[in-house]
Amino acid sequence: MGVIMSKEFHRSIDVDGSIKAKAWDFLTKLSQNAELTGLDVKIPKGPADKRVRTARVDLNYRAVLFAVSDDPEPMWLLAAIRPHDQAYEEAQSLVLDINPANGAMEVTRPAKIDATVTEYRKRAVEPDAPQVLPFTPDELVGLGINAEVAEQAVRLTSEDDVLGLAADLPEWQQQALLDLATGTSLQDVRASYELDNTAAPSADPLEAVQRATSRMEFVYLEGDDELRRMLEGDFAAWRTYLHPTQRDLAYRSTYNGPFRLAGGAGTGKTVVALHRAAFLVRKSPTARVLLCTFTRNLAAQLQLDIRGLLGAGESERIDVRGVDQVVRRVVEHVDGAPGQPLGEREQDQLWDEAVHAAGVPADLAPHLGPAFLAGEYRTVVLSLPEHTRDAYLKAKRTGRGLRLNRVQRAAVWRVVEAYERAVETSGRTTFDALAARAARLVGDADVERYDHVVVDEGQDLHAGHWRVLRGLVASGPNDLFICEDGHQRIYGERVVLGHFGIETRGRSRRLTLNYRTTRQNLRFAMGVIGDESVVDLDGDAETVAGYRSAFTGPTPELHGFASDGEEARFAADTVRGWVDGGVSPAAIAVLARRSAEQERARLALKDAGVPVELLQRDGPGNADSVKIASMHRAKGTEFSRVIVIGAEAGVVPLDWVVEGRPEPEYSAARGRERSLFYVACSRARDQLIVTWSRTPSPFLPTTV
Ligand SMILES: Nc1ncnc2c1ncn2[C@@H]1O[C@H](COP(=O)(O)OP(=O)(O)OP(=O)(O)O)[C@@H](O)[C@H]1O
């Protein structure tokens, strides 16, 4: 038996925990013989589509399905599982179509679409407002957009209305209309949804379901194994129903070298990275893949996601690691276990001592603070082709601000050597020193290499990381696949991949459709970015043009308080209200720049009787508690409801991190603080609240 499962059916299995086992039972019986196994298959009265049926899942629930074909054996399309009466009502109105313009498989409720169109038809058109869809209805219909909707859509003057009018259309039509309303050309929409090559769309459901547009909502399952895997774990749309652009990027057979995928927060970069790693490991039974990200908690999450995507066997050939773990393994392999990493304060002290020990000229010494030196080490010293004084004297120091003549450079190199000696004699290490060592070892040492490396959160990796990763995979097709968002650079200084033999020019794409959050939250987050100028890993200006979301939700709330205590109480009361209203605690996070605010919120939530914990370094943590996290740790995570607290002047941006630095370090540090706030504000899927006490942060957008 062949089964086509819709995303809606898949999702409806997950609504009530008890349904999953019954759904499996139901599907097993369906595959044996629907007529004989007590499924009570019925045709509803007066159906809009004669092929529709309902069938028993248990006493209360029925499946809505289509008998798609009987040739050579039964094939069913599973549309939904619903409570008894609703199933009948839905079955009467659903229609299964193959789009005549492009062959996409579509299940819709025409009566509902008609009702919405009628409502929009009655609306007055604003005479002077420009239309958001500068096309003719025929042009839209030519793509495959529903004709009645197209007729009304071209009169509309806001994106919200376009989405409202399109709300009952198949997902690809909604997305394509949103793309067109936000500036994408007809030609680009045709290309990204693969709407061409369809001279004569086939009526064969098996052909239709393979179309890129159909695969946004349907999956064809041939055997029991596939079906079982689909039903295991939670419903997670990203595992199965990719946007055509995501599928194209992740499943392209060959990139002739390193590929770079940019895109704003929530545009699905991690999803593409996961599918790419899965594709590469499946492409060859011997391939070894490294899937690498910046932090350990993200690596732990990626590991869980890869298991969900591939199952245990294949996922074992994907090494999922934080980048500093990768570095450490290289060093460990040759030198044995390195010492414990020094803390930030201890490192600062070593830099100060190194300046003294190196005999730096008096006019230079005041410029060589720990922040400057650490930056110099990460961006210049770790980039050197050879770790030598000569190489440093000749090195390009673009963007470093402070100019150094030859004598001064020689003095800085002495500081670097003194620092490295001090680290070594301390018996401890630093992440930067490890990266420097690994970058030197990786070329010739007998370290474990990979066939493919996939990198997430690439914007935060520094020069040493890139040199190590470059050394871990031979140059060639499909060597490196790199995801990044320059606006989320919160750790390192900017780097240009080309300096490390990673040439992605001409091999890069930018994702712009937000899958995480609502248009309201997205607008707010983009307001936080403002006109901060940011560069990508090719060294070019990064843009937010075209960022959009098809979801809608509440406007972000902003609340100012007279004191920290009032602010913490507000956060606790709000969270308490959400939990009492049925929101799962694990779907809520409170984020703050400093540990003082985090601790205040933790205590206030505890007092309010809400289960709470700090977000763990090693993974997602307890499923029953609200998470408190620093903005740094929140990177890469997401929650249904987020409160960002402590968004006040002096904290966002954090004074001591930015103040007193010379340009361009000052601007770089301030830019990182802004990015950090953007990271925090882009974690909410549904509701975002931002609070402060006393004076609000200068990074808050002026309009919400
Ligand atoms: N095709 C899809 N179908 C359903 N959900 C999706 C799809 N693609 C992405 N998502 C969801 O959108 C959210 C954001 O995706 P993801 O984390 O991959 O974005 P990102 O670009 O890596 O974000 P960030 O840069 O903020 O970490 C996740 O919840 C993900 O599961």
UniProtKB/TrEMBL annotation:
It comes from the Bacteria. Its EC number is 5.6.2.4. ATP binds at G263, G264, A265, G266, T267, G268, K269, T270. SUPFAM superfamilies: P-loop containing nucleoside triphosphate hydrolases. Keywords: ATP-binding, Exonuclease, Helicase, Hydrolase, Isomerase, Nuclease, Nucleotide-binding. Residues 242-525 form the UvrD-like helicase ATP-binding domain. Pfam families: UvrD-helicase, UvrD_C. It is an enzyme of class 5 (isomerase). GO terms for molecular function: exonuclease activity. It catalyses: ATP + H2O = ADP + phosphate + H(+); Couples ATP hydrolysis with the unwinding of duplex DNA by translocating in the 3'-5' direction. PANTHER family: DNA 3'-5' HELICASE (PTHR11070:SF45), UVRD / RECB / PCRA DNA HELICASE FAMILY MEMBER (PTHR11070). This is DNA 3'-5' helicase. It comes from Actinomycetospora chlora.
